[in-house]
Write a structure and sequence with these properties.
Layout lengths: L4 H14 L6 H8 L1 H4 L16 H11 L8 H28 L10 H9 L2 H14 L2 E8 L3 E8 L2 E11 L4 E4 L3 H5 L4 H9 L18 H10 L8 H15 L1
Helix pairs in contact: 7-9
């Protein structure tokens, strides 16, 4: 639950001293690998909120319900092919549904929330809606300012441990929070949303609308491939034909 690297270092040292683990070899090795498991020191890297083990766990869940120790390699391959076909079918359905529908919400559709419903997929909109709801239950304190940047502290009501500092440049509508949720997940945290709302910003700034979470992310990816080097303009077509040819061989 640590947010900053300084907080992590302080709690780690306090834990080692409390339980007399300063010279423990296993804890020394774990500490050397902190960049791989501690969110507080790796939030500058995009992870979409996925923990290190979630990918393997989701794969095991997807194919493990039919596979066992007695499953042959051929049977496993058949199960895996059916699983991927189901994923692709679901992806096509979701892509059609998300691109043709508008999300509904129990909250009043203010400008920013309405914009999120228009550009984000339904699943991402739910995440943004949750952050937006939290932003309504926060208190804001201005800590300082200079010629172009304003510094605020945003805290959930009755939860002082949730306080984070937010920098805001009004001219460019640039916002940055110490929780680094946007850098790690790709959508704005409730601290940043609160400050944008405070300054009457009614649309999510374009720089904070991650293409991968929009309704037309897949279409834009294909268009981007088509507009690349003329020698590579047939890559999307070739990938589609390779998949069809592969299925034909099977």
């Amino acid at each position: 639950m640590c947010v900053t690297e300084q907080e992590f270092e302080a709690k780690w040292q306090a834990m080692l001293q409390k339980y007399e683990l300063t010279e423990h070899s296993w804890y020394k090795r774990v500490y050397e690998l902190k960049d791989k498991w501690c969110p507080a020191v790796c939030r500058d890297f995009f992870s979409a909120g996925i923990l290190s083990s979630q990918r393997s766990e989701s794969t095991n869940h997807a194919i493990g319900f039919r596979a066992s120790k007695a499953t042959t390699l051929t049977e496993f391959y058949t199960i895996f092919k059916k699983t991927t076909n189901r994923w692709r079918s679901t992806e096509k359905y979701d892509e059609f549904t998300y691109s043709k529908s508008i999300a509904f919400t129990s909250l009043p559709l203010s400008g920013m929330l309405k914009h999120a419903a228009q550009v984000f997929t339904l699943s991402l909109f739910r995440n943004f809606e949750e952050e937006f709801g939290y932003s309504m239950a926060t208190t804001v304190q201005m800590l300082g300012s200079n010629e172009e940047c304003l510094l605020y502290q945003v805290t959930l009501e009755d939860k002082p441990w949730s306080a984070h500092q937010v920098n805001y440049i009004q001219e460019s509508q640039t916002v940055w929070c110490t929780c680094k949720n946007f850098e790690a997940s790709g959508w704005l945290c409730y601290h940043c949303i609160r400050i944008l709302h405070l300054h009457s910003v009614t649309r999510i700034p374009d720089k904070y609308v991650s293409k991968r979470w929009t309704k037309f992310a897949k279409t834009e990816a294909w268009d981007r491939l088509k507009n690349q080097d003329p020698k590579q303009q047939y890559i999307p077509w070739r990938q589609t034909m390779m998949r069809k040819y592969y299925n034909l061989i099977l």
